[in-house]
Structures are given as structure tokens and as C-alpha cells.
Predict the 3D structure of the following.
Amino acid sequence: MELYFSNESYKKKAMHLAANPPIHYHSAQEAFDLLMGSDNSTHPQNWKLHCINVGRVCGMLAEKCGVDCEHARALGYVHDIGRWQIHSFDHALRGFEILVDQGWEAEAIGCLTHSFLNGGRCANNEEALSDFFVDPDGRPGWKEGHCPDDVEEFLSRYAYTDFDLFLNVADLMATSKGIVTPVERLNDIATRRQIDPVNRGYFLAEFTNTLNGLGRRIEQITGCKDSAFDRELYYYREGMTIEEITYRLTAASSAFYKLIC
């Protein structure tokens, strides 16, 4: 589905923040309190438990990489705050708007980035946009005449940070019940959402490369000599099957879970 802000002022704010990322962050405790204080009378509480576990994984990844754990946890706690109002894919934009209204601009960016792996507009578990395609070499593209929605425009202007990377991965490792392997999380999502074959292979390849890359980085920092992660980059090229890329992802998923848990 196409994603648009509720009014032009929020779009202008998002484009401004894309070019001028804020440097003031709220504490993890403040973020946790905001999450737990959000009015959720009409929706189940599972999304809050998911957010808590995303915050935990973000903190673990930041600690492994020697990055600010406080900000990482805070981003994880409030990344889905838009579910306070709505549970569709629009929750990403509603979360941004909620946090901007409360002066949480740094954390608001995480609402827009958490569902888009490495800034790819269709690098996720959602249905691909109608103009999206993957070429025979496994590279994503847009059909001629494509008009970007607000999120795609933001992503094209924003440079992902370590915090966005941690959030991408953590969101795909945390359920309402706890921390699981990335493959287990994807299987959990698949029970509730119809998978789109247009972008599925591309997303799985992108996620495999992300886990392998971050895994090797953590191994290097921690002094691990025998790597459990592939150096080869995988693309969902013509002729490759979903089973093949899933096999690669499963290997990376298991190794990554063991590394950080």
C-alpha cells in the first residue's frame, strides 16, 4: 500500500529531518514510560510487548558494536508507537506524527525506518507496490513513470545509521513472547500476513546479506577468528528459487542468534 502523511506539514518535517537528523535523544526509561503510558484501550497489548523486546535486542546489538545502548533501546521501545492509533502499515507514519508532536524527533525517524530494510521501500514483508520490480540480476527497480509515495521520498533522502540497522534487525527478531531467530520471526509473521512473491526473494536476500554483514562486524569486534557468516552477497537472480535463498537465510539466522544471545 502507498503511504502518505496525514498532512503536508508532517511531510515537510520528515524531509527536513532526513537532511538534518536531530542530535537530541530521549533516555530509554523515558521511551519505555511513553510506550507503557500510551492509550491502548481498543487494541491488544501484544504490540507493546513486542516493542519491549525490540528495545532489548537493539540494546544488545549496540553493546556488541560499541554504540550508544541508551539511544538504541529508546528507538526500539517506541518504534511501533503508531499502533497506539492504528494497526495497518500506516502505523509507521502515524508513529512519526505522534512522536513529532511530542518533540521526539530523533525517535520519530525510527518509526519511518524500522520496516524498510536498509532503506529499501519494498524490502519488507508487506505487499510490493504495483510499480516495483526485481530485475534478472536481483536488483530492485521501479517501472517508468513511477511516482514515489511520502515514505519512499523520505527514504531516498535519508542516510541510514547504525541505529536504523539495529532497529531493522531487532524488529525481525522480537515477538510479543520473547527473542527468537530471524527465521522464526519471519515464519511467525507469515501466519498473519499474505506473502507477496514479487518482493519476497529480494527481501530474503537483502536480509541474508544484512545478517551476514552485521554478524561479521560483531565477530571482528569481539575477536572471533573463525567466522560463521558468508562473505558472498546474495541476490535473488533469475533462476534462483525461494528455497535456495531461504536455505542461506536459515544458516545466517541461526549463526546470528547464537552470536548475540
Notes: Residues 96 and 147 are 22 Å apart (CA to CA). Strands lie at 132-134, 140-142. The radius of gyration is 18 Å.
